[in-house]
Amino acid sequence: MMPIEMLSQIKVMESYVFVAPVLFIMVHILRPLFFIPVLLLCVTGGVVFGLLAGTVYSIIGLMISSILFYLIIHLLPALEKRCKRLEEKLLGNELSLNTIQIMLLRMLPFIHFHLLSFCIYKKSVSFTSYLRTTFLTVIPVACFYTTLGKTIQEISISYALPLVVMILILAYFVRRKQVIIKWQTFFQQNAA
């Protein structure tokens, strides 16, 4: 009787092995509706599933979420206009982010994930281009925060704060350098 009970317990545990990742990915997909930060989910993935599985599940969830964002923004032009206004308000209308900048900004917990998805959407020429850029910008986020979740007991604020500062400095140095000359200034200099 004992081996049969053990087998039934093993089968129950095996069923949770498949259910937990699916639920985790579903939470990633529903994350924007509940305003759950990406950081929180990726850290949770590291704590619950470990480094490798947590990273893979987070990448899958973030990619599906980004694909849904792309499809929804195509179906709802009002959402595209709203995202454009938000982008202009937060990033300015003269700013155009490159892939490395988006990658670094996604690492910061206070930057809206789908605002950066909108930046990728705007600069992408096709759905494949959008997927490729999204995938490249999602990998570091998932790896970093899942690793953070795996080692959360050992990290202190004295390590976390310099890391955030370093990411901000990197974002500054890889920015696209542009010179903006106002119309009046341009003609005043030429007239003199």
Automatic annotation (TrEMBL):
State the InterPro entries in the record. Answer: TMEM64, VTT_dom
Transmembrane ranges, per UniProt, are 12-29, 35-52, 59-79, 99-121, 130-149, 155-174
| Coiled coil ranges | none
Do the record's keywords include Transport?
A: no
Q: Does the keyword Secreted apply?
A: no
- List keywords of the entry alphabetically: Cell membrane, Membrane, Transmembrane, Transmembrane helix
Q: Report domain VTT positions.
A: 36-150
Chief site of localization: membrane
Its cellular-component GO annotations read: plasma membrane
Q: Where in the cell is it found?
A: Cell membrane
Annotated PANTHER family: GOLGI APPARATUS MEMBRANE PROTEIN TVP38-RELATED (PTHR12677)
Homology family:
Belongs to the TVP38/TMEM64 family.
What protein is this chain from? Answer: TVP38/TMEM64 family membrane protein
Q: What is the lineage of its organism?
A: Bacteria, Bacillati, Bacillota, Bacilli, Bacillales
